Every structure is written in structure tokens, then in C-alpha cells.
Amino acid sequence: MTSDPSLRPISPLRARMIEDMTVRGFNEHTRRDYVRHVRSFAAFIGRSPDTATAEDLRLFQLHQTRIGVQPPSINSAVSALRFFFAVTLDRPDLARRLTVVPQPRRIPAVLSVEEVTLLLRAATAPKYKAAFATAGACPGEGRGRWAARLGSGHAQGRRHRLQAHAATGRAGQGTQKPALAKAGDRHAMLSPQLLEVLRAWWREGRRHSLLLPGGWLFPGFNPVEPLSTRQLCRAVRAAAQAAGIKKRVSPHTLRHSFATHLLEQDVDIRVIQTLLGHAKLDTTALYTRVANRTIRTVTSPLDRLALLIEGTPRPEA
Asked: 3-state SS of the chain?
């Protein structure tokens, strides 16, 4: 009997779903999660998921709620099942039966300018210092994770922009997920300071043969592979600890910090939205909840009315 799931034969239905996701450019992590959620649903109803009814979906979501599944996990399952029914089975009527669970948005952790400086100084190697600075100064690349190649991703110093081209042909080939990768080309901000940091890493990497011709700008332990998310996270946490930063820090914290600092510098929130790559302004507006300097500079309507209030006679009792 075959015990290893990876060695078990794939059903035609699952193979078709995987093909549908592959055609749409889903990465390996997303494909694996979607398959897992559909498999869990099939186990719940006790039969093939293509025989499911609207009542099966309702009972499945009720079951998830009763056993304490958290909203993010429930919504992840909703995304997977909606794709399965709407795309793979062409049953949008069932996909509409699934309900997304509202979830409170947490205020992101943000580093001060001083803390970001300490973090960069605590970086153990030029590669990590350059990776930290890029993740923070190019926030539009944070969540999507782009992996720039030396032959395509390049800095245009005179125009003050970083041009990054999407990494292709990597997902699903047994490689680790790149720490900085994005599903599309884009231009990002390139400050003179970031340009100098990147040039310092370029010189160091070339001197020690760490940068391969046409290879990754931020290679992993194996220079043929890109710096993985896990490696970058570990480096960020180690630098934060060395710098004495008590906050919970991750590469995404640098993105949050960059956006908040821009907001505190009175940069238009729609410009920040574009830099971050947010589809909705509401997502960018979350940073107004942590921009302390911006909040302090806002004048309350009561303050403006103070003189009028003080100058108005009190009504008689």
C-alpha cells in the first residue's frame, strides 16, 4: 500500500484542477493550498466533490465554524472551493453559495526610522543589507515577491528607478519560493542611498563569485537558486535581535514601515497606493491607523471651535 501522498495516483478531477490553476499562473504554494482545501471538503461530505450540493457547502462552512476554524482559514477554503466549482466544474451557481467571513484587520507592526537604521546596520552581510533595503524601499515588490535576475532586473541610476522583470519558469520545479518575486514587470523607487547599497553588494558579490552571469540578484545558499523567503525572514529576525529591536519583525514589516513613513511625510495616499500595488484604497488607508506623526498633526474640529466655545455665554440652567 502506498503511504506517501506524493506517490499516490492523481485523480482526473484533481489533475484538471491543477491544470486550470497552472494555466492561470498560480504558484506552487497556492496550488497546493487549493488542492488541500478541496480534499478536506471531499472528506467532509464523504464522496467526490463534483457531486456536492449547495446544502453540502452550507454544512461544511457550518462545520468549520463549530470546530473553531479561524476566519483566514475559512476564507482561504472559500477561495479554493469557488475556483474549483466556478472554473474546474463550470458551476458558478455553487460557487456563489460560499460565504466569506469578515475578519478584523490588525494594525501592522511598524519600525521607526531609527529602528530601520539599526536593522540595516545589524545586517550580517552586504547581500542581506541590500535585500533589506530593497524590500523596504521598493514596497510594491514586498507582497508579490519578485526575484530579479542580473540580466533583466537592473537599476537606472539617472532616472531614479528600479526596473524589475518577473521571474518565470521557477514555480513547481522543486525550488524554494523566492524571497523577492512578483508576477509581472514594474518600476519601483530607487533612491541614491539604495543605489549605493546595491552597488556595494554588486561589487562584493562579483568579487567573491557569488553573483552568476544572468543569475539572481539575491542568490540563496546555492547561487543557482534565489534567496528564499525563509532565508530572508531568518536574516531579518537575526538582525532585529542583534539591533535590540523588541518588535516582531519580518520582511513585510519593512514594507509597512516604508508606507507609514511616506504617509507621515505628507505623501498623497493615492501615490502610496500605487507604490504598494494595492488594488483598493481602503487597503492603503490601513496605514493611517499607525502613522502617529500624521495623527498628531491633524487639528481637531473642537480645537478650531475652542475660541467660539469659550466666548459663548453658558445657557442658563
From this structure: CCCCHHHCCCCHHHHHHHHHHHHCCCCHHHHHHHHHHHHHHHHHHCCCHHHCCHHHHHHHHHHHHHCCCCHHHHHHHHHHHHHHHHHHCCCHHHHCCCCCCCCCCCCCCCCCHHHHHHHHHCCCCHHHHHHHHHHHHCHHHCCCCCCCECCCCEEEHHHCEEEECCCCCCCCCCCCCECCCCCCCEEEECCHHHHHHHHHHHHHHHHCCCCCCCCECCECCCCCCECEHHHHHHHHHHHHHHCCCCCCCCHHHHHHHHHHHHHHCCCCHHHHHHHHCCCCHHHHHHHHHCCHHHHHHCCCHHHHCHHHHHHCCCCCC
One domain for residues 130 and 239: yes
pLDDT in tens, 38-76: 999 999 999 999 999 999 999 999 999 999 999 999 999
Judged against a pLDDT cut of 90, whether residue 250 lies above it is answered with no
Parent domain of 37: 9-95
**pLDDT over 90, % of the chain:** 31
For residues 186 and 230, membership in a common domain is answered with yes
> Domains in the chain: how many in total?
2
Q: What is the average pLDDT value for the chain, to the nearest integer? A: 76
In a domain, 210, yes or no: yes
Q: Is the pLDDT of residue 159 over 60?
A: no
Q: pTM of the prediction?
A: 0.58
